[in-house]
Design a protein that fits this description.
By secondary structure, the protein is mainly beta. 0% of the residues lie in helices and 51% in strands. It starts with a strand and ends with a strand.
Length: 118
């Protein structure tokens, strides 16, 4: 059974930082593409960042480029999202997701709330 467990969310002031973690189990992590998504109140889910098995050439949505960094530790089956210079519009529930080779993100975590106060 695949499990993705996020942690690290919370309340932070504008300009602050948070690091999200996602611990994966039940899948071949080192061969999986991992991603972070978010859903803000009243908005559709957004693909924020993604990283392939090697960690190279990560993807970022334009609004987070230069502020967020996705990384992975294949030895720990964990993917991270370092979020710096947080803005109120970053407030959302953040979800970790895994693509184990199907070409789509089929496994999802339960989400962790990030709230940026001004």
């Amino acid at each position: 059974q695949v499990q993705l467990v996020e942690s690290g969310g919370g309340l932070v002031q504008v300009g602050g930082s948070l690091r999200l973690s996602c611990a994966a189990s039940g899948l071949t992590f080192k061969r999986s593409t991992m991603g972070w998504f978010r859903r803000a109140p009243g908005k559709e889910r957004e693909y924020v960042a993604g990283v392939g098995w090697s960690g190279s050439a990560p993807y970022y949505t334009d609004s987070v480029k230069g502020r967020f960094t996705i990384s992975r530790d294949n030895a720990k089956n964990t993917v991270y999202l370092q979020m710096n210079s947080l803005e109120p519009q970053d407030t959302a529930v953040y979800y970790c997701a895994a693509d184990s080779g199907t070409g789509s993100f089929t496994y999802w975590g339960q989400g962790t709330q990030v709230t940026v106060s001004s």
